[in-house]
UniProtKB/TrEMBL annotation:
Pfam families the UniProt entry points to: NAD_binding_10 (PF13460)
Residue span(s) of domain NAD(P)-binding: 13-176
Origin: domain of life: Bacteria
Annotated protein name in UniProt: NmrA family NAD(P)-binding protein
Amino acid sequence: MTNTHTRPILITGAAGEVGSVSTTMVRMLLDAGWPVRAFVRVDDGRAEALRRAGADVFVGDLLNVADVAAALNGCRRVYFSMGLSPYYVDANLLMVAVARAQGDLEVFVNISESEQTLLTFDRMTAPEGIRLSWLGGTVSQWSPQQRAHWIGEQVLDWSGLPVVHVRASIFVENPIFAWFPIPDLLATGELRLPLGEAKVAPIAGYDVAELCASILEKPAGHVGRTYTLIGPELKSMSEFADDYAAVLDRPVTYVPQDLESWNTDYVDRALAADKPHNAEHLKTLTRLMASGRYFDVQTDDLAALLGREPKTLRFALQNSTRIRADLAASTG
């Protein structure tokens, strides 16, 4: 497509993994003829793939204000994302400060979380017993990452920038659905998750990417809005077992697990030593989902926003590069 746009769109977290929203957005915007500046932390194979696709790859640190200013220079539209990090607030505030100093931003799309709908000031400051009753009896305190997103949203709203918050529910590509269960599924056909019969509605990263890209392309009508999104299918894991079976081409049975034992055996074993911040966030998500409260929020109509039916869990699993690699290894 002929490029008729001159100002690049800045996409941070462009080499991300979970959901691959930023990476998908880079390719969508390039296909639509937009110049894209892809902010990455490391100049590795993922960065080179973005270059080959046509992106202007900027290698830098979101915690370095000089890097942030250089990356944003000449850009009037920005998508801000950063992986799970104890320094998320620092990076968010630096981007806000630089964008305010630049002074000519047209839109700032901020990826956030659907649970922010639950993080009202009154609820966050209520006595512990009330917080427990609101959140199903297993969670009285939010994860550090959830609190960081809350602070980030507050600062963006105070900043005067042309902000759009996109609050997405848990991605299908999250390790809880797409990493941790797969070895057991391939070995035994058992879908082992600690969610009981609670219904969940994970969202495909592809849909979030398409919506955010469309906002960046045509921000009119979106600035100042907050969108809360969940996936198109609200089902129990017993019901989702059929989707895993179709993707893995084998019978699958859902075997509910004890919540805290599963968190210890899967999340802590994989992440607690090296990434305790990430581990705490994932454990909080399992507790919220198991309580049945995580998806009990008022949401926007994803199909109306996209102009099409949203992608299902089955679609996202079928298109997961990690699951394809695990399948190939198991049959190779």
